[in-house]
Design a protein that fits this description.
Chains A, B: Homodimer. Chains A, B: Converts the preformed base xanthine, a product of nucleic acid breakdown, to xanthosine 5'-monophosphate (XMP), so it can be reused for RNA or DNA synthesis. Chains A, B: It holds the Pfam family Pribosyltran. Chains A, B: It catalyses: XMP + diphosphate = xanthine + 5-phospho-alpha-D-ribose 1-diphosphate. The structure is a homodimer of 197-residue chains. With 197 residues, chain A is an alpha/beta fold. Helix content of chain A is 28%, strand content 31%. Chain A contains 5 helices and 11 strands. In chain A, helix 3 links the parallel strand 4 and strand 5. In chain A, helix 2 crosses helix 3. The model of chain A has no long low-confidence stretch (mean pLDDT 93). The interface between A and B is large, with 41 and 41 residues.
Chain lengths: 197, 197
């Protein structure tokens, strides 16, 4: 997605060969116009999947997921990273390790909001090793619902997550695919001639 | 806001005289259509305040804030509830106690995303004792920016938050104002004759 790639080039900060910081438009400050375009793009790419629900993870997944939900006309459920005292219902849970933050979180969704008839689109901000996406997939499976697609804002294609998810048979659509962060530069996977490399 | 009040009546669950649970459309599952209407309504109410930035708190503030940001054409910054290892910039911070969850969080925003020229709209999902809103106000003040309004999705008017914020001189706009949760029933403050009571 050209607009997103341009934003990453102009505002993303490469902290290491592994870490891209996009705090100015996605992970801390949010650009609502860009989120709206991202929502439209996910809706377009998954238009034929019969999606009935979007599942994401707090906090950075919420903005792109809600915009996608608006254009797909389906509810969004966000998994919480720890249990809330007022969330007393039966929980579907999975363990997710973040290598970037070096911490493991229990992520949970109330079983009230996933039904075995649901066709679920999982949306997340980043895909690196696939831990968060796999945790969300595990939760959806516990409910008996089906994962019909995985939508990612920024994929670090040099890590194993996308490949792993595709091996499991999931359709993964990433709006920006990063081939490398070496030498402090963002290199995208060149999917169409004439696009940003 | 009629649509929101109807949603609260049909889907909200009164857990006690103090606690209203709206996990089906705001705090866990999110209704994107309703969030879109909420965003429009905030944009309308604060149209003349010259707002340059919206500040909210993860996670439940993000959806209404991003929709408001879309219609007001301004960026959104969400305060985080704990420090992230990749968030290395100088932080503006405040302590916020949640009586509902019985826990105190340090909330933080990077000083990169608030400027002393900013005219800030603070948005949050609930207003009860005003702790979260006051924490956000404190952070905005640390940056030198000005709080030009506080937009709340659901105000529990029988608690002290709204009064406190108004005494401090802030303009508070709450889209649903709850007079009482007694006897398991939601009673709204009746602002216009003919509206839901």
């Amino acid at each position: 997605m050209r607009l997103l790639e341009e934003k990453i080039i102009s505002e993303g900060r490469v902290l290491s060969d592994q870490v891209l910081k996009v705090d100015s438009f996605l992970n801390h400050q949010i650009d609502p116009f860009l989120m709206n375009e991202i929502g439209k793009e996910f809706a377009l790419r998954f238009a034929n999947e019969g999606i009935t629900k979007i599942v994401t993870l707090e906090s950075s997944g919420i903005a792109p997921a809600v915009m996608a939900g608006l254009y797909m006309n389906v509810p969004v459920v966000f998994a919480r990273k720890r249990k809330s005292l007022t969330l007393t219902d039966d929980l579907l849970s999975a363990s997710v390790h973040s290598f970037t933050k070096n911490e493991t979180n229990e992520i949970s969704i109330s079983n009230k909001y996933l039904d075995e008839d649901d066709r679920v689109l999982v949306i997340d901000d980043f895909l690196a090793n696939g831990q968060a996406a796999l945790g969300l997939v595990e939760i959806v499976k516990q409910s008996g619902a089906k994962v019909n697609g995985i939508g990612i804002v920024i994929e670090k294609s040099f890590q194993q997550g996308a490949e792993k998810l595709k091996e499991f048979g999931f359709r993964v659509e990433s709006l920006a695919r990063i081939a490398s962060l070496s030498n402090g530069e963002v290199q995208f996977i060149n999917e169409k001639v004439g696009e940003l490399v």
